[in-house]
Amino acid sequence: MSIFTDPKLGLIPAAFHKKLEEQNRAKSCYDWAGYAAPGVLDSVEFEYFALRNQSSVFDISPMHKYRLTGPDTTAMLNRLVTREVRKIAAGRVGYAIWCDEEGMVIDDGTLFHLGDNDWRLCCQEPMLTWLLDAAWGFDVAVRDETHSVAGLSLQGPTSYAVLEAAGLDVSALKTFDLVQIEPDLMISRTGFTGDLGYELWCDWDKAEDLWDRIWKGGLHQGLRAIGYEAVNIARIEAGFLTAGVDFQPVHATERLHRGQTPFELGLSRLVDFEKGHFNGRRALLSKRDAPRSLLMRFDVEGFKPSEGSLIYNQRKKVVGHITSGIWSPTAKRNIALAHVRMPDARRSSSLMAEIYTLQEGKWDTRMARLTPVTKAFFAPPRARVTPPART
Amino acid sequence: MNHFDAIVVGGGVNGLIAGTLLGRRGKNVCIVEKSDSFGGMASYSVDGGPTLAHSFYNLSPRALSDIGLDLQHPVLAGKPTSTVSLAEDGRHIVFSDEGVCWSDGTAHPDSKAWSDLTQQLITYGGLLRQLAEAPPPGGHKAVLSRGGMAEVLRLAKLGIGLKKLGKSDMRRFLQVVLSNVYDIVLDDLSDGPVAGMLAADAIWGAAAGPRSPGTVFNLIYRMGHGGTITQPAGGMSALTDLMVEAALKTGCVLMPGTEVSRVLVDKDAVSGVITTDGQTLNAPLVLSNLAPKPTSRMTGPSVFDIETMRRIRNIRARGTTAKVNLKLKDNMPLPGLPEGLANSRLIYAPSAEYVEAAFNPAKYRQKSKAPVIEAFKMQTADGSGWLSTIMQYAPSDLEGGWTEAAKDQLAQITVDTLGRALPGLKDHIAGRQVITPDQIESATGAPGGHWHHAEMSLDQLLTLRPANGMCRYSMGPKGLYLCGAGTHPGGDVMGLAGRNAALAALEEQP
Questions:
Q1: Is the pLDDT of residue A26 over 90?
Q2: How close is the nearest chain B Cα to the Cα of A134, in Å?
Q3: Which residues pair with A340 in a beta bridge?
């Protein structure tokens, strides 16, 4: 996943590795930015349903984290990302994307407004050199906190109760709020699952103490440690994008024209042309009305997961492909995220996915009708209620 | 009256030409210059001494006629000068239209080879001049648009010109154009002062030695207008005065002694400038005669894309040329130089090898102990006699900095080097002026004190000049243009950068 993994070094443990190791029965780790991260600890069904029905902890320490401080930080960030960062008040978190000079998305991430001219950017791709470039000429210090700040994602309907049981009162925290709840602990009401959930941030060396505390709080709340496979199902249900899967971070592409504009990814709400110049603005002005393809959400006919399928239009011409496709256990629907080329994306009522199936040693294909969906596949109201319910 | 159609920041040769051209096309133009006099690097001088530039060889007739200057004007006509390569044994070598001979009049055995090679380079230079007289090729215009067609035609003309050279000459051109001057010259000549002269002419103002790639291009570039070296009557300041006059005639408002502190940008378009003395001047067009980096400093980095700023700060501009002016005690002829050669361009470059060796210390932030020198004996306005010398190599980033002691050493090296061919020179010297690259930078704003604001190397030419994405003179917000030597086709008191930029600006805001 990361292009900067040192092959001699091999995978290194993330902040909660030791704690996860104790529960890792599947022994299935994958490379997340050079860290050994669990794909699944036991079985994905257990983990997914813990996430949706009880609560779950997932180690997000491998995420790239950058601290930006100094008098010009707001100006620097406003030139970097496409949205107006001045609308993200201190104590709030904002989802943001940033583009290259051609308006192609480099990555997406979350901006934590920690205080006056004090921000943290969390993202999937390594971004230090880009941030240093972006900060040139501004009075801003950029620090890579990836390996000094640990992150633990606590998600699920009982996550508020878990925190309460751990002695942490976050009743006032609205979605996208953050609070420095203790000197060594910051909590934000954020997540990658579309559910009620929190992300807990502390120093790397305090991670295991935090784990023990949360784990104890979760004893009667069905808390379960989970791996990425379960998270992936949840994020597709929520309609969230994964870098490298649902869009190609343009700095990691080698072929021409693999990059995508925010408009092609359905993220136009994150582009503010009125705020002044930002990277790629001039290119995006001309690309705004001419998307080459659209990222779409589909209900897929049948129940076979459609990931990797090609999409055909009525005239049997390939016009796109499914980037993420699963059977959603909660929505009880076969759902997918897909790229569809223009103009077929605009007349998408007759699109079909060609799904490859393997049934007891026999490969086959079946054509599944695609029905466009505009909203998230699963967006429970409990995710936004403040104060949240305990169960 | 603070509203203009266009503001030119920096009143050097390119700024004056850009402003005057815009003025002649009906724009209400203001040219703002930091120092009290116009002309920039061409006519900068200290305490009435000789100017930085002391001759021109690349001044574009097209740029001059575009600003309404009469090409027959006595100042421009000046007098073409022959070149003399100084020799330690007193047998100086004279280069002129007729070829190469020794100072006693006997023909030099390398004369024909030199003439042939020079002629060839001048032919190539004529071809490349077509490229210089237009914005670099490969813009974003549709081929079928008027501008696009013009571009295709221009390139076709270059192609036809190449074809017309004939097969072997065309092949030779393509073979040498990207090569280094050392190899090419020594193909035809044995190493010595004749080869040394060509090697030297390929590296003036550059952070390059004759063995650096692309130096043949530099030599061809220098000969783009025929290679004739002219000393304008009345000196370089007379030339720039002429341009100032032309600017005034077209109604340009000239503001000397005024420094722009900020270029104003509103809604991604320039709206004017603020000066250090607090004036606000409004205009929808701002042409900056400064290099890209100082220009970006006036707007702040936030109006440019991150990639643009990265390219801007990676532009290489390391000045390696100092000016050493030696005040002469009297107007007597220089010792060891025949009377007839007194007013020639004197160079000290005994061989191509010598020129390369002179470059070596500059790579490591040292000054040359055995430098390459170009000198003119001249009289300044007050009648005093000077030996105006260009001293190569004196890097802008000298280790230890340009202290008074370092400057003294540089002057001493210059006198000693010339003294080897002109014995007793030191006894004729009454005073010395040293103008180092860092001083040139602070006086004119040219990064590193570099002649061309940006090294004229293959990676910074044509569509890559000053950097990828900026070659059409516009940069960042609407209405902001670069018109200085950092842009295509570069400096050398040529004037085409300013002219091309003005035409590009007119194309977008007629």
A1: yes
A2: 5
A3: A294, A320
pLDDT digits (tens, 9 = 90+) for A358-375: 999 999 999 999 999 999
Mean pLDDT of all residues belonging to chain B: 92
pLDDT at site B471: 86
- d(Cα B40, Cα B444) in Å, to the nearest integer? 6
> Of B440, B71, B40, which Cα lies nearest the Cα of B240?
B40
Q: Measured between alpha carbons, how far is residue B417 from residues A73, A235, B346, B412 in Å?
A: 54, 76, 12, 8
Which residue do the tokens 């079928």 mark? B144
CB A331 within 8 A of CB A378: yes
Residue B144 has pLDDT above 80, yes or no: no
Q: How far apart are CA A278 and CA A99, in angstroms?
A: 9
At B450, list the tokens: 């570099």
Q: What is the pLDDT of residue A5?
A: 54
Contact (Cβ atoms closer than 8 angstroms) between residue A97 and residue A105: yes
Query: How many other CB atoms are there within 10 angstroms of residue A143's CB atom?
Result: 14
Of residues B485, B505, B444, the one with CA closest to residue B4: B505
Interface of A with B in 126-185 (CB under 8 A): 130, 133-134, 136-138
Q: CA–CA distance from B350 to each of B88, B113, B120, B190, B495 (Å)?
A: 9, 17, 23, 12, 32
Reference B500, options B30, B66, B31, B25; nearest CA is: B66
Q: Residue B151 above 80 pLDDT? A: no
Residues 272 through 301 of chain A touching chain B, CB cutoff 8 Å: 276-277, 279-282
First to last CA, chain B: 22
On the question of pLDDT at B223 being above 60, the answer is yes
Contact A277 B310 (CB under 8 A): no
CB atoms within 10 A of CB B432: 18
Rounded Cα–Cα distance for residues B395 and B245 (Å):
35
The closest of B295, B384, B377, B366 to B335, measured between CA atoms, is: B377
Query: What are B4-29's pLDDT values in tens digits?
Result: 999 999 999 999 999 999 999 999 99
> How much is the pTM?
0.92
Which residue, B504, B499, B508, B506, is CA-closest to B246?
Answer: B499
| Contact status of A100 with chain B (Cβ, < 8 Å) | yes
Residue B140 pLDDT level (bands cut at 50, 70, 90): low
Q: DSSP string of A296-352? A: EEEEESSSS--TT-EEE-TTS-EEEEEEEEEEETTTTEEEEEEEEETTGGGGGGG-E
Phi, psi of B392 (to 5 degrees): -125, 120
Q: pLDDT at residue A3 above 50?
A: no
The encoded tokens of residue A374 equal 């505009």
B281 strand-pairing partners: B273
Q: Whose CA is closest to A201, among A219, A181, A225?
A: A181
